Amino acid sequence: MIAVAAGALTGLIVDVPVDPDGDQARQWLIDELSKPEYLAARPTLWDQLSKAFWDWLNSLQAPGGVLQGPLLVLVVLLVAAAIVAAFFIFGRPRRNRRGAGIGALFGEGEERTAEELRRSARAAAANADWALAIEELFRSIARRMAERVIVTTSPGTTARGFALRAAEAFPT
Q1: 140 with 118: CB under 8 angstroms?
Q2: Looking at residue 99, what is its pLDDT?
Q3: Mean pLDDT computed over 117-146
């Protein structure tokens, strides 16, 4: 029985075509390499650009492996220029960026009514001062809610504090 099974198995193995001609082998290779597993392993554009940059940077090295003379000066200047550009673009690093913009919802002596604040917001929008228009409109909403005693505000209330109180008054 085992001999019969082994003979049948040997016959199957011999009958499998594993010697393709050139065109068929090329087609099999194209079909195999076009599978998603292989496409996912391709380097991205970022990978290619970063590799090209590092290759260029490594090409600046002297045969001994150490940057020398004008090349060292060039690399130091490029790094310094990148740091200066980062300061111009992003500004000075801060520990808490959110703290710079926090202020009282209503400034000292702010006594305008909700309608006056709304008119001020419209005027700012007409002048394309969108930041002021949004601030004034937010203040008018806060003032109106305070006038209607929906939300209480006290001196020094911030926009965040007001929003938290308004969320309690208007749960979703």
Answers
A1: yes
A2: 46
A3: 91
CA distances from 7 to 11, 12, 17, 19 (A): 6, 9, 18, 22
- Cα dist from 110 to 83, 155, 157, 158, whole Å: 42, 10, 12, 14
CA distances in angstroms from 62 to 36, 69, 70, 71, 143, listed in the order given? 42, 10, 11, 9, 69
CA–CA gap between residue 136 and residue 119 (Å, rounded): 9
Q: Tokens standing for 62?
A: 């002297």
Give the largest Cα separation in the chain, rounded.
104
Residue 143: partners with Cβ closer than 8 Å, 6 or more residues away = 106, 112, 113, 114, 117
What is the pTM for the complete model shown? 0.39
Residue 121: what residue type?
A
Each residue's pLDDT tens digit, 27-86: 988 888 888 888 777 888 889 998 998 888 777 666 665 556 677 778 788 999 999 999
Bridge partners (DSSP) listed for residue 158: 104
Mean local confidence (pLDDT), 10-27: 74
